[in-house]
Design goal:
Blueprint: E1 5-9, H1 14-25, E2 29-36, H2 43-54, E3 58-63, H3 99-113, E4 118-120, H4 136-148, H5 151-154, E5 160-162, H6 170-179, H7 202-214
Parallel strand pairs: 1-2, 1-4, 2-3, 4-5
Amino acid sequence: MGKQKAVVLLSGGIDSATTLAIALDDGYDVYALSFDYKQKHKKELKCAEKIAGHYNLKHKIVKIDLSWAKSALTDKKTKIPEKRKKIGKDIPVTYVPARNMIMLSFALAWAETINADAVFIGANAIDYSGYPDCRPEFYKAFQKAAMLGTKKGAESKTIQIKYPLINMTKSEIIKKGMSLGVSYHLTWSCYKGRKKACGKCDSCLLRLKGFKEAGYDDPIEYEGEV
């Protein structure tokens, strides 16, 4: 009997890279899945390609058009917030409507196609921006939908939706990744696709906080002092 297969959603950020390492450590034959959804920049997507290449994985990039979904990550007229004081307390303009639901559905379809046993996603509900599709209740509900809406589920061969980081702080995630040898210099978190990370958007602030609390230096470069 061969290895169990898993589809891992790989954005190119810290959480998805760590989740990928966890899936590999758990012994899965990993298929990485990324999305070009007409986001403002492709920097994180290029990092996803580098991470998949680093592990020599099968990597699929799916093109979908979410440019019409109102979000600061897709709409050029909507500014990305900087230095927010209450990150995670409300739903910010960087939320892309139903993005995780859409991406999970694609991942589930690929998992059925290759006869995979699991889908991994690096969702986190502790140190996060406040997106509703990053909460454990959503993933429990999606698991039920996966059981009811797929051939495998109908045949009692349920594809497991796995979200191992859901209750971890960013520093705990980084410590876990470090223990698994994750190459964080290949990752990108900034909502802006410049040469260096801005150090001011929610994603940068959460990343910097995580590395500081974990006791490690962030290996990527930032604009100015952070």
